Amino acid sequence: MWPTASAESAPGGRGGGAAAFARQTFAVAEMELRKLRRDPTELATRAVQPILWLVVFGEVMARARLIDTGGTSYLAFLVPGVLAQSVLFIAIFNGISVIWERDLGIIHKFLASPAPRTALVLGKALSGGARALVQAIVVLLLAVLLGVRLSWSPLHLSGAVALVLLGAMVFSSFSLSVACIVKTRERFMGVGQVLTMPLFFASNAIYPTSLMPGWLKVVSHLNPLTYQIDGLRALLLPVPAATVAHIGLASDYGVLAVTLLALVAVAAQLYPNIAR
User: Fold this and answer.
1) Residue 74: inside a domain, yes or no?
2) Which one, out of 94, 98, 227, 268, has a CA that is 20 to 30 A from the CA of 180?
3) Is 1 among the domain residues?
């Protein structure tokens, strides 16, 4: 389904404005998710990495007791970090889809449609969020099997879902911008590999920021992943684990939302470059 406009959805029509924008955004997202329904093996292979982090790395570090996690088990501390890492790894490679679409000639149809570039970018980012939610379920089920105590409050779970979506959309938009600049699959995969590890290790995913040297603390506080992990810890872990180096939920959501708006604007400007 292409994000086309009818008389009602055209600018100035009865369905124009926000309603038309939402329809076009969800049309792009739905098209992306149809690819996933046809080939769900991507999610299965992505589940291997969080299993290794929790079952191998998490269990070993929990026994070693080398990191002070504020009175909670290291494995519980690690779960939100691995969840955010899974979101990052899925979202950061989401931009490769536009390179495939360019090679297949599909991108020109998108650009020729009346849908604004922002709707095209948001639709792709939203599809990345949906993929990340599936991965989040896998990580949380694994955490339960490992005996990690989580908060199952409906309000907290809803907040965690919002953080997963926001984080995935942030890094999907960033990935799309990178794809529009590098333009080839080989370069994109190389850049993606280079970016994921620094983003992950320069965050509070596997150790509190209090253990970092000063310069790394500054980098960590500029890293959107830090705020996603901080919010997930506050929502998913019971006290006192939820209070470990807690920044504040308002700041967590605010930083991610502002970053998303900025990256969507950048990606919308760069989007036509992929066709050149």
Assistant:
1) yes
2) 227
3) no
- Give the C-alpha separation, 234 to 257, whole Å: 18
pTM of this structure? 0.86
Q: How far is CA 36 from CA 44, 63, 127, 131, 265, in A?
A: 11, 38, 10, 8, 26
Residue 11 belongs to some domain of the structure = no
Residues 176 and 179: their CA atoms lie apart, in Å, by 5
Q: Which two tokens stand for residue 168?
A: 């995935």
Domain assignment present for residue 133? The answer is yes
Look up residue 275 and give its two tokens: 């066709």
Nearest to 164 by CA among 208, 125, 199: 125
pLDDT tens for 90-137 read: 888 888 888 887 877 777 777 777 788 898 899 889 988 888 888 899
Which domain covers residue 208, as residue numbers?
18-275
Task: Count how many domains the chain has.
Answer: 1
